[in-house]
Amino acid sequence: MTNPMSKKSFVDSNISMSTQSPPELTEGQKACLRLVLEHNTSKEIARKLGISPFTVDQRLDAARRKLNTASRTDAAKRFAELETHTISQPFVYETVMLEPPQFIASQEGAAGWVQHRFTKLISFFSVPPTGGERHELSKREIVFHALNIAFFSTLVMAFVVVVLTGTFRLFQ
């Protein structure tokens, strides 16, 4: 014979995130998360809030733990979803790369759609952050940026060789 209390406690402990109340974050944690969404570093956030970078890191780490995320960027995204109440479960067969509705091609939205596509294309040719600053790049993104730099360096070197070869042939 099973104990009915154990079933109830099992159900209570496995309630989905959508019915649970959002975690309580301090105002300092919220301010730091908002600035992380704007792609600020800990030093920049510290300057803007008038606190030390160590305090910023502590607030972001506490918020990350409360929101149960892997990184400060994920925590900031989760916090933004909680603030705007846009958390929803994806459909079973929903494609991850669906375009937002504001970029659907129309007479007045065509320019925005083209600009969005151009921005997306340019993001593939970006250079990773330099200067020894902390970053939020995954190992996959680091490899992608390294291959990107290697590819374009090869193109530049090939162009230089072609130009020099053409110049030497001109003078012979």
Cα end-to-end separation:
99 Å
Would you tell me which CATH topology of the largest domain applies? Answer: Arc Repressor Mutant, subunit A
The number of helices is: 7
Strand portion, in percent?
A: under 5%
- Please tell me the overall pLDDT: 75
CATH architecture of the largest domain: Orthogonal Bundle
Largest sheet: none
Unreliable stretches (pLDDT < 50, length at least 5) are 7-19
Q: Which class do the helix and strand fractions yield?
A: mainly alpha
CATH class of the largest domain: Mainly Alpha
Q: What is the number of E strands?
A: 0
The CATH homologous superfamily of the largest domain is called Winged helix-like DNA-binding domain superfamily/Winged helix DNA-binding domain
What portion of residues is helical? Answer: 55-70%
Q: What is the chain-wise order of helices and strands?
A: HHHHHHH
In short:
The chain is an all-alpha fold and 172 residues long.
